[in-house]
Every structure is written in C-alpha cells, then in structure tokens.
Amino acid sequence: MIRKGKDCYRRKMEHQLQQNNICGVWKGLKTISGFKEPKSQPVGDQGWANDLNLFFNRFDQASAPPPAQSPLLQPPSRSVPPCQRHRTPRSSTATGRSFVDPLLQFAYQPDIGVDDAVIYLLHTSLTHLEKAGSTVRIMFFDFSSAFNTIQPRLLGDKLQLAGVDHHLTTWILDYLTHRPQFVRVQGFESDRLLCSTGAPQGTVLAPFLFTLYTADFSYNTPSCHLQKFSDDSAVVGLITDGDDREYRGLIQGLCGLVPAEQPPDQRW
Fold first, then answer.
1. Is the pLDDT of residue 82 over 50?
2. In whole angstroms, what is the distance from residue 98 CA to residue 81 CA?
3. Closest listed residue to residue 83, CA positions, set 100, 103, 98
4. Are 246 and 221 in contact (CB under 8 A)?
C-alpha cells in the first residue's frame, strides 16, 4: 500500500514537472515535508528598533589591525612585471591599479570575470596533478560581513600608499565616515547613530573598496598561492611527495590574522 502510494505521488510530481507547474510542485513538497508558514512577528517597540540598530552598527568600534609581520600581508608594489601587465586595469592610478594584485585578484579587472577565476584554479590544479606524486589541497573561505568591516583610516593610508589622488582619497573617507543610520520596523523608528566603519550595502563602490582594502593580503609562490575574487578567496597548495608544509604554514598564517579573543561575528 505504501509503495503504491509513493508511485502514485511520483507520477503526479512528474506530470506537474512536465507541465512546468512549479507552484504545484512546491506545494506538494511543503505537504510531504510538513512545512508550516512561519507565524507573524510579534509587535515590537522603539527599544526593539534601537537594539536592531545597535546590532547593525556593531562593527563601528576601534579594533587593532592585523599583525604586519604576517606573510600574507605584503606592501603594495608600484611596479608590475611585464608578464603580468596584460591583467592590469586600464584606468589611471586614481583607481589604485598598481595596488591590486594583477594576477590573482580576478575582481574589477578588464575583460576578466568569475569564469576566468574558475578556469585558472582548475588549470593550475589539473596541470600539477599530471605530475607523479602530486596532490592539490584547496581551502575556500569568505570574510564574515566583509564590507561592514572596512576601517576608513586604514583604507585611506593604503590608498595614499598606492598613489591615489589625495582629493579622491579625502572624498572617499568623507563618504565612509559619520554616516547617519536608523532602523524602522513595524511603525517604530530607532534613534539615529553615526556609523564610521564599513561601506554602505548595495553600492558598487563597496566591493571595489574592499578589493583595494585587502590588496596587500596576498601570497604567491610556485607551490602555493592565494587566489581572490573580491572577498571570495581560496588558498591553493600544489603539493609534491606529500610535503604540504608551505600550505599548512599559509593556513596557520591566515588563522593568525584573527585574534583568538575576537567574537566570531567580528572576525575578518
């Protein structure tokens, strides 16, 4: 009886899929999984709105920069090797083109996109695996609340070091600091707070500034490298004969950038 019921339901689902009845399929899935519509949120008050506003502004506090001695943090180079010049942006130094890693940062490069990042990763890994006694280890990671953790003071120093025009740097810092924000929920409006950390969400400038902010966060050797697409990154270890010491050292260096006592939701 149970098997007969399953077969009947399977034929019903297949028919709905053939008829492109996505709504019917979704309703059926909710029925067999016991899905229930969430209850409406309880009515809040201004204190609730203020708590939400404080939560969204939780990164607006002074924090120490990562240790400069880490092998992952390298000073930005003002020169680009001839073999890598084809990957540099065509715009002026005002965009910090010498500041962005021209080879392993695939975001905001002309004629380069996420497909190129995937192809480069696969080509590098598969080419290495053709050698005897070779393995590849890859760790993918993402920054928690990446764009919310930009510290304008550090960003300004990095932009000036990269040769960005002083007036443009000043304009960017003015744009990022002392931004008023508030939360309105169910008719209640929170008090206004001034935010001077991070970049406004939903803007094109936010991921670009984060890319420049982390441009000195790099590592590249023949057997190990850090590949990035804005805040999405991967540590790739091309290991031979089981010797993964460099790869492990790079991972440990990455973990060392995050203070152990820092709350998980504030780590970068």
1. no
2. 11
3. 103
4. yes
